[in-house]
Design a protein that fits this description.
The chain is of the alpha/beta class and 465 residues long. The chain has twelve helices and 23 strands. The protein folds into three domains: 117 residues, 2-Layer Sandwich (Nucleotidyltransferase, domain 5), CATH 3.30.420; 176 residues, Nucleotidyltransferase, domain 5, CATH 3.30.420; 146 residues, no CATH class.
């Protein structure tokens, strides 16, 4: 397959386990009639070992242990961080709630490669797992709705796809590691904020634990059916925006799904001290009782990390305006100040909207942001030039921090950049086009993936700590 190739890293720091993959991504125009570049191929080159997520104490991640693990995996793969072009480090489940979660994932992203996004958030995890498991690809091939249910140690994250497109996502507090077996006596103990809210700090007898695990399995399947009213409010992290359509097939990923697959194949389970095996059995029993069609990927436990390494990134168009010396840029808050082109009637009006949305995002004047522009599909050349002049004046009026970053779905990046730069030539400026960001809260923009083509890797994300 012709095209440029580069390496991508995925690192998933979950409630129970931490693992890393390295992938080779191929970029090229393929059969695109307009010559636009796409990701043509994704190949896993190295799948690291499954490590237990190390903690200093119940509230703090052992950052040094994770750094050492990453270094060991790179050494085993024969790869240096400088060899890697892009990727994502995602922190998931209960681990995202630890006191040092944000600092750890941000530092690891910087160590993992020259450009690896630091990602968190239950819905983001749901989408990455759904793409890494193959649910999105299945929905595209079969032109039918598929739901991916990613069941980890602390959370269950769901994503619905139709025709390869993401429809919606949600998450609940169901996982295999909320309860741990007591080491000194029969029974269980609550090991998470969720479980302690239910059982307190007292030992949990086997009957009470079994009943709650059955409830958790029922809530998980209710979520997959879109029946969130059946789930206690304190167990819900995020809901779908509306009732999701019925799924033709249910993909299962995550650590608990790995146990489910082993049980259905009559394979031995690992020796675990948590409730994962019991939850796995309850889910199989209840799903089969409902007659639900289940599908397991080839590597259920690695679905999220495969998604992080192969699907987190998208590519810009070639008609961007950029200064590579200003890149990479990370954690840019995405602002959507303009409903349509009619709202940019003057520099004063545009500045007022920029100010308002910057305040709504709790940004200080010195904080950098990325401004998503409305559709320019119906705009002509002169209208885009005039828009660039207005945006340059509005940016000056509002004191927009540099470099000034504008994003758009249409391929007018270079023309708009030229117009803005002509009106404010001394300002740092990046204009990235042909992006579909949906409801992204933040964006990372990397250096060009090819030396001879100005195609930028972009990771749209939600950072929720």
């Amino acid at each position: 397959m012709s095209g440029a190739t580069f390496l991508s890293v995925g690192l998933d720091i979950g409630t129970t386990t931490t693992h890393l993959i390295l992938s080779r991504l191929t970029v090229g125009p393929g059969d695109d009639p307009f010559g636009r570049h796409h990701l043509l191929d994704r190949q896993v080159l190295y799948a690291g070992r499954i490590h237990r997520t190390p903690l200093h104490d119940p509230d703090t991640i052992d950052a040094a242990a994770i750094r050492a693990m990453v270094d060991q995996e790179y050494a085993r793969a024969g790869i240096q961080p400088g060899d890697i072009t892009t990727g994502a480090v995602i922190i998931t489940g209960e681990t995202a709630l630890k006191a040092n979660a944000r600092a750890v994932v941000t530092e690891l992203a910087g160590r993992a490669s020259s450009f690896a996004a630091a990602v968190a958030g239950a819905n983001q995890e749901a989408v990455l797992a759904g793409r890494g498991s193959g649910a999105a690809a299945w929905s595209r091939r079969h032109r039918a709705v598929a739901v991916n249910i990613d069941i980890g140690g602390g959370t269950t994250n769901l994503a619905w796809f139709d025709g390869g497109r993401l429809l919606d996502a949600a998450a609940i507090r169901v996982g295999g590691r909320h309860l741990l077996q007591e080491s000194s006596a029969p029974g269980w103990r609550a090991a998470s904020t969720t479980a302690r809210g239910r059982f307190g700090s007292a030992p949990v007898n086997s009957e009470a634990a079994a009943g709650w695990i059955q409830d958790c399995a029922r809530w998980c399947l209710a979520a997959a059916a879109g029946d969130f009213d059946e789930i206690p409010a304190d167990m819900v992290i995020t809901r779908p925006h509306g009732p999701p359509p019925p799924a033709f097939i249910h993909f299962l990923s995550g650590g608990v799904a790995e146990l489910m697959r082993r049980l259905e194949r009559h394979e031995p389970l690992p020796d675990l001290d948590d409730a994962g095996p019991i939850l796995a059995r309850a889910l199989i029993e209840q799903a089969r009782g409902r007659g639900l069609p289940l599908e397991y990927p080839s590597d259920p436990i690695r679905a999220t990390v495969i998604g992080a390494g192969q699907f987190a990134m998208s590519l810009s168009g070639e008609t961007v305006w950029m200064d590579a010396a200003l890149l990479p840029l990370t954690d840019l808050k995405v602002l959507h100040p303009f409903a349509d082109l009619k709202s940019i009637v003057s520099a004063d009006a545009a500045a007022s909207l920029l100010d308002r949305h910057r305040r709504l995002a709790d940004l200080d004047p010195a904080d950098r942001a990325a401004v998503m522009l409305p559709s320019l599909r119906s705009a002509g050349w002169r209208q885009v030039e005039a828009l660039g002049k207005l945006l340059a004046e509005a940016s000056e009026l509002t004191g927009l921090a540099e470099p000034r970053v504008f994003l758009m779905a249409d391929n007018y990046g270079r023309l708009l950049g030229e117009s803005i730069a002509a009106a404010a030539p001394a300002r740092g400026l990046i204009v990235v086009d042909e992006l579909r960001l949906d409801e992204a809260d933040y964006v990372d923009i990397g250096r060009p993936v090819e030396a001879e083509r100005p195609i930028l890797p972009v990771v749209a994300k939600t950072l929720v700590f």
